[in-house]
Amino acid sequence: MPVTDAAADRALLEDAARAAGEIARRYFRARPEIWEKDDGQGPVTEADLEIDAMLRAMLTAARPDYGWLSEESPDDSDRLTRGRVFIVDPIDGTRAFIKGESDFSHALAVVENGAPLAAAIHLPIKDRMYTAAQGQGASRDGTVIAPSGRGDWDGARVLGAKSNFKPERWAQGRPPVAPAFVPSLAYRLALVAEGRFDAMVTLRASWEWDIAAGALIVTEAGGTAQDQRGRPLRFNNPHPQVDGVVAGTRAVQAALVAGLA
């Protein structure tokens, strides 16, 4: 099969993300059935599972030579043999979805040899669509986006859970930033990419499906996204996690990485 270009994969992901949104809206605030995953991995709803099944059928039919990695599908080591892989979170922010809050998203990426190639993040209740393709920039609802341009971390608006800002995590104590929080990691990255926040940080090992799409959107917008030690983010790992994420304007992101203990 001929290799498709990044723009074609981006268009496919956008269509799939919109289809996911149609399913999510049907279940939203409609008391979907909920189960708890094993090993304390949190809740999953019938909406997550229906979206996962739809995305897998749609995407792998369109690109049968691509591998598959999703939060809600059993992992298959066959993906490690594929040059390109779909990395998908059917609903990022399931707890927010269950509560009837609108800050959940669908996060879809195509990764090629460890690097994101195309991405879509869709917030169906807010009716927002963020997309990117390697070398072709990033957009929200078709309009080009860019980070805030902030050059100093003093007072920077940084998205992250409260635990990330504990003084003991930082070489010189708590950083001089203004923290904020939204539940979806993918949405945090999108908000940084469009300049509504200056940076985001998560210091826990992070699942690839939460990060891959947003990492590309940030970097294509003109920001930087790395792990917490300042190393490039690589995806489709045998164990599909990365060592935390720090993303933002180039200056604020660099200051945050340098400031970590």
Folded structure, characterized:
With 261 residues, the chain is of the alpha+beta class. It has two domains: 134 residues, Fructose-1,6-Bisphosphatase, Chain A, domain 1 (2-Layer Sandwich), CATH 3.30.540.10; 103 residues, D-Maltodextrin-Binding Protein, domain 2 (3-Layer(aba) Sandwich). Helices cover 30% and strands 26% of the residues. The chain is built from six helices and 16 strands. Strands 3-4-5-6-7-8-9 form a seven-stranded mixed β-sheet. A hairpin with a 4-residue loop joins strand 6 and strand 7. Helix 1 packs antiparallel against helix 2. The longest helix has 22 residues. The mean pLDDT is 96.
Please identify, by name, the CATH architecture of the largest domain: 2-Layer Sandwich
The CATH fourth-level homologous superfamily of the largest domain:
Fructose-1,6-Bisphosphatase, subunit A, domain 1
Oligomeric state, counting identical vs distinct chains: single chain
The spatial strand order of the largest sheet comes to 3-4-5-6-7-8-9
The helix tally amounts to 6
Helix content: 25-40%
CA distance, first residue to last residue = 48 Å
Q: Taking all residues together, what is the mean pLDDT?
A: 96
Q: How many beta strands in the DSSP annotation?
A: 16
CATH hierarchy, class of the largest domain:
Alpha Beta
Uncertain segments: none
From the helix content, strand content and strand pairing, which structural class follows?
alpha+beta
Main sheet properties: 7 strands, mixed
Over the alpha carbons, how many angstroms does the gyration radius reach?
17 Å
Enzyme class: hydrolase
EC number: 3.1.3.7
Family: Belongs to the inositol monophosphatase superfamily.
Keywords: Hydrolase, Magnesium, Metal-binding
